[in-house]
Write a structure and sequence with these properties.
The strands form two sheets. Strands 2, 4, 5, 6, 9, 10 and 11 form a seven-stranded mixed beta sheet that branches. With about 120 residues, the protein is mainly β.
């Protein structure tokens, strides 16, 4: 069982910045992919950014050039630096851990953290 605890959400004006943190309950080098997803009211959950244990990153087109995902293996923490925030970025942001096992794969989710961007 993996526990993920997000922090860093809040209210910010358009053009501002926030940094989200996701602390994992185990060595994140044992997690194949960690990522951030978001879900706005009435919308489906969508991918924001991912980072593999090898350090490869992937971003949604809507956040490329504005958001950066990174990891601190010593702290078992993944970050999402969000710059030039827009009202459209308002969502609940969820941390995800994807683990491959010998018998399949498992997804784990954090409880979510609210990000609100005012215009």
């Amino acid at each position: 069982q993996v526990q993920l605890v997000e922090s860093g959400g809040g209210l910010v004006q358009a053009g501002g910045s926030l940094r989200l943190s996701c602390a994992a309950s185990l060595n994140i080098l044992s997690i194949n992919v960690m990522g951030w997803f978001r879900q706005a009211p009435g919308k489906q959950r969508e991918l924001v950014a991912t980072i593999t244990k090898g350090g490869s990153t992937n971003y949604a087109d809507s956040v490329k050039g504005r958001f950066t995902i990174s990891r601190d293996n010593a702290k078992n923490t993944v970050y999402l630096q969000m710059n030039s925030l827009e009202p459209e970025d308002t969502s609940v942001y969820y941390c995800n851990a994807y683990i491959l096992t010998l018998i399949g794969s498992r997804d784990y989710w954090g409880q979510g953290t609210q990000v609100t961007v005012s215009s």
